[in-house]
């Protein structure tokens, strides 16, 4: 009980000094709990939607689960409409109805503005069924009654200010459907952001599926008292157990949808938790510094406790109990802040189009428990070493200001271990750069990153003595005696300076590494475009992977001023090599003009011959793996088509980042083995302008696609800029997440300076007494903060560039061969670190300047 009272008294006696450490724990726990609540809420939202909207039994084509969300031929897998009556006669069936839907559509308004989501959620066109009433209700107007009417969901109508009577155009591979809005339907559960239009059944079959006598699914509702499992058996019996169809109960259908969505949510969840882990790691340095300095400042108090009978264990336990209190307070506040963060993320997602209702806010009991356990355990672990030092304070320390005991040899041991770890990590990074395969090098890269990070942290005090002196020559010596005082203060306790700088080092190392990788990817892709791409223009979907509908392709081919417009599509096939091995492969079918659009090197044979009748090419890796050579014949069984025997006319180099490993054949060859209604649509088209007509052709292509806003025309400059922007946006998201770790690191600098000022109270009083002005005192503390921040930045940026360089060597194995160091970014981050140091010193410098000189001299601390 005495130990508990002592810990409680010390905790509240230093509550101001504990506050910043508590904030670090709070932020880290908030990020973890916020991530868990946010992803759990998304799971709940989708689970409710999938469960409620699924019928009692769903009948689908057997291959429906293997098809892409965006079928390359623009039409989903179907089954005969006659099955509706056949299934409707099964025992226990109350109602069977056909569903005709497609996600390979675009919906635009009368101004050709895309009505689809910008967040990646699908645009769905479907017929209206009774099953839709499970999750939706018509809130105004009525369901479509013919080909000139369409119904739209309320969220889309609200977002785009649509009203009954407005015209919408639904673009599908079979043509455009122009119809006026006859009704608006609202979700009775949360709509995560999909845009949905409903057509009458006949129109949906004809324009979405391409035939009047097919459906994509049969939706079966059970009679009262009939279970889903029994209904499934009855329907299977009605279908004579045909393997051509897949039957799912409501729960099975919902689970299948959840699995598809769960993979995406898990990636997002673990990525965000990874950044929370980085914040926790940075927070550990802050907590270690806080307790180390508090223990040092209470040396006499601890010595007196030992003198009056307290054991080492009791002193140790007293410090750890303070850490437990800190962890509990920070964690409890962090859990609450995490729930607020999750709500904020939901509002942010709603603002960009993914609707998430707070009604579905899900707080599992494991979330606050996880936050509390993590916060307390991490805090106690961070405080263990300072607590152990406190237990070593001898009773004699009560009679003199001895500080915590220090072992001179321990510094050399630490330095030796740090150098060993750093050298081992450096060797792993060097081995990464020498790897022949990316799979082998990735493991070495992970080991190298981990060892060099730990090594730099361990060797931090040794580096502080060297790097701070070097920085001082450039930065601090300009400020005369005040600068020298700041340098001395930063070097007074290298272990503390090393730990404070290491906290900032971690976040900035990741920033530098990702900057190098991102810049190298852009530079490599740009060089590859300049070297390999001869086309003036490329046309493709703007992001959702939709094929180019025939009407848009025809509009592009009709553009004047073009030397050629190349079709480019992709077919699935089973390829059998001369050695008898069969595997699923993809065949790229293009026009012969593609050879001018993308320059590929033929290692053997003639690529032009691959565009002859019943001919093809293969990549060098495939040829080496299967022993294929020019002149061999491959058996190619096209999916949904016939089997062809194609002669290998060329083997192309895989030393490229464009179409790496592609197998080429003439599009006319592919067409001869595919039914006309199964031939895939173009996934891209390449254009070459007539000499001197590049600008006119560019404008004409854009004009031709004005009615098809989901497709974009890009020249090479556009393509490069788009690639740069995409990588830049991804990096900005990562930098935003890393900002949490950097904020915690800044708090560490603030805390170190604040406690350092308290530790040096008497010294500051004496300096003021002999003539140091308040302005000079504040400048000294600011300069000390700046040099510590620059120390951490220098280590972090150097370490990160080393990581990024090693990672780029792995990317070079995949064709991204250019290493580019983004010096403007690196130098900007380094300069901003000085500003971070200035900002962190504001409060400690202000408090130091307000000290009463006489009281400071008279203090015992």
TrEMBL record:
Residues 275-395, 737-852 form the ABC3 transporter permease C-terminal domain. Keywords: Cell membrane, Membrane, Transmembrane, Transmembrane helix. It is found in: Cell membrane. It is a multi-pass membrane protein. It comes from the Bacteria. The keyword Cell division does not apply. The keyword Transmembrane helix applies. Signal peptide: none annotated. InterPro entries: ABC3_permease_C, MacB_PCD, Macrolide_Exporter_MacB. Pfam families: FtsX, MacB_PCD. The chain crosses the membrane at residues 270-296, 319-343, 363-385, 412-433, 445-478, 499-523, 733-758, 783-803, 823-846. Residues 19-237, 500-698 form the MacB-like periplasmic core domain. This is ABC transporter permease. It comes from Streptomyces rhizosphaericola.
């Amino acid at each position: 009980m005495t130990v508990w009272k002592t810990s409680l008294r010390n905790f509240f006696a230093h509550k101001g000094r504990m506050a910043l450490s508590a904030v670090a724990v709070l932020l880290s726990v908030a990020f973890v709990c916020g991530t868990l609540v946010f992803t759990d809420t998304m799971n709940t939202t989708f689970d409710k939607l999938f469960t409620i909207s699924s019928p009692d039994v769903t009948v689908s084509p057997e291959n429906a689960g293997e098809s892409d969300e965006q079928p390359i031929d623009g039409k989903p897998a179907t089954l005969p409409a006659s099955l509706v009556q056949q299934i409707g006669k099964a025992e226990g069936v109350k109602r069977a109805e056909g569903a005709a839907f497609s996600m390979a559509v675009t919906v635009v308004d009368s101004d050709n503005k895309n009505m689809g989501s910008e967040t990646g959620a699908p645009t769905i066109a479907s017929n209206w069924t009774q099953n839709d009433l499970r999750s939706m209700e018509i809130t105004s107007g009525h369901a479509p009654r013919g080909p000139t009417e369409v119904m739209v969901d309320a969220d889309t109508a609200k977002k785009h200010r649509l009203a009954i009577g407005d015209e919408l155009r639904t673009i599908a591979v079979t043509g455009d459907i122009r119809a006026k809005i006859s009704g608006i339907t609202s979700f009775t559960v949360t709509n995560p952001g999909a845009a949905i239009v409903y057509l009458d059944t006949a129109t949906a079959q004809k324009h979405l599926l391409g035939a009047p006598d097919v459906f994509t699914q049969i939706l079966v509702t059970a009679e009262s008292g009939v279970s889903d499992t029994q209904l499934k058996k009855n329907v299977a019996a009605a279908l004579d157990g045909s393997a051509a169809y897949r039957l799912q109960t409501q729960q099975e259908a919902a689970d299948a949808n959840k699995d598809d969505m769960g993979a995406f949510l898990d990636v997002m969840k673990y990525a965000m938790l990874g950044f929370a882990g980085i914040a926790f790691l940075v927070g550990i340095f802050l907590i270690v510094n806080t307790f180390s300095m508090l223990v040092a400042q209470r040396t006499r108090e601890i010595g007196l406790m030992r003198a009056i009978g307290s054991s080492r264990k009791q002193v140790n336990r007293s410090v750890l109990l303070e850490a437990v209190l800190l962890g509990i307070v920070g964690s409890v506040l962090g859990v609450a802040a995490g729930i607020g963060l999750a709500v904020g993320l939901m509002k942010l997602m709603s603002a960009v189009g993914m609707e998430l209702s707070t009604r579905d806010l899900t707080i599992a009991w494991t979330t606050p428990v996880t936050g509390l356990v993590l916060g307390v355990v991490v805090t106690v672990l961070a405080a263990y070493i300072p607590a152990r030092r406190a237990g070593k304070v001898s009773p004699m320390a009560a009679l003199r200001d001895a500080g915590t005991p220090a072992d001179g040899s321990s510094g050399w041991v630490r330095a030796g271990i740090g150098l060993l770890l750093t050298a081992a990590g450096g060797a792993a990074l060097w081995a990464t750069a020498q790897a022949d395969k990316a799979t082998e090098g990735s493991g070495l890269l992970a080991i190298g990153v981990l060892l060099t990070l730990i090594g730099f942290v361990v060797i931090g005090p040794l580096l502080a003595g060297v790097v701070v002196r070097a920085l001082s020559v450039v930065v601090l010596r300009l400020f005369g005696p005040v600068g020298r005082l700041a340098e001395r203060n930063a070097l007074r306790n290298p272990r503390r300076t090393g730990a404070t700088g290491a906290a900032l080092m971690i976040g900035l190392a990741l920033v530098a590494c990702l900057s190098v990788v991102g810049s190298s990817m852009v530079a490599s892709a740009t060089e590859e475009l300049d070297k390999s791409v001869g086309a003036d223009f490329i046309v493709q979907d703007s992001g959702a992977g939709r094929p180019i509908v025939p009407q848009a392709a025809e509009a592009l081919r009709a553009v004047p001023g073009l030397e050629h417009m190349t079709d480019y599509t992709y077919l699935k096939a089973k390829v059998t090599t001369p050695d008898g091995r069969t595997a699923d492969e993809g065949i790229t079918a293009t026009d012969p003009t593609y050879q001018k659009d993308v320059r590929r090197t033929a290692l053997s044979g003639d690529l032009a011959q691959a565009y002859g009748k019943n001919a093809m090419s293969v990549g060098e890796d495939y040829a080496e793996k299967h022993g294929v050579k020019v002149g061999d014949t491959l058996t190619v069984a096209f999916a949904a088509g016939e089997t062809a025997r194609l002669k290998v006319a060329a083997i192309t180099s895989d030393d490229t980042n464009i179409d790496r490993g592609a197998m080429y054949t003439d599009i006319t060859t592919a067409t001869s083995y595919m039914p006309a209604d199964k031939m895939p649509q173009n996934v891209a088209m390449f254009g070459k302008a007539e000499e001197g007509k590049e600008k006119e052709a560019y404008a004409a292509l854009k004009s031709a696609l004005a009615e098809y806003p989901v497709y974009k025309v890009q020249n090479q400059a556009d393509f490069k800029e788009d690639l740069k922007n995409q990588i830049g946006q991804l990096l900005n998201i990562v930098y935003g997440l890393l900002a949490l770790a950097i904020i915690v690191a800044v708090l560490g600098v603030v805390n170190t300076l604040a406690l350092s000022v308290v530790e040096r109270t008497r010294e500051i009083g004496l300096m003021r007494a002999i003539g140091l002005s308040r302005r000079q005192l504040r400048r000294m503390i600011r300069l000390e903060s700046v040099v510590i921040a620059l120390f951490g930045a220098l280590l972090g940026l150097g370490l990160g560039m080393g990581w990024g360089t090693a990672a780029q060597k792995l990317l070079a194995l995949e064709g991204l061969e250019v290493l580019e160091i983004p010096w403007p970014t690196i130098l900007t981050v380094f300069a901003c670190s000085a500003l971070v140091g200035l900002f962190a010193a504001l409060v400690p410098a202000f408090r130091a300047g307000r000290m009463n000189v006489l009281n400071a001299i008279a203090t015992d601390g």
